[in-house]
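Please think about what follows:
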Amino acid sequence: MKQIVYKEGAHQVRADAHKIPFSDESMSVVYSRGGLDQRVYTFDYAKLISEIARVLKTKGVFIHFIGDLPAHELEKYFTCLKKDEFNFPNIWEKK
């Protein structure tokens, strides 16, 4: 992940999670660290997850750390690739 984030030409975007300003299937990776924690994010997880799925390419990867996303919503769009040391799924691939 570090290679992707710090790659020359890569940039980060801050945006409304319910209206991500990118075209359908335009991203290979969506990464979040802490922004989806239920103590910080108290809105519509189903909408958020569907929006992430919308912008990700098929087989694109959604990586999140620090956040308790509802697995039943994630499993509609994604397959779990990896769980963290606490057995929380945090790396997902778009179906």
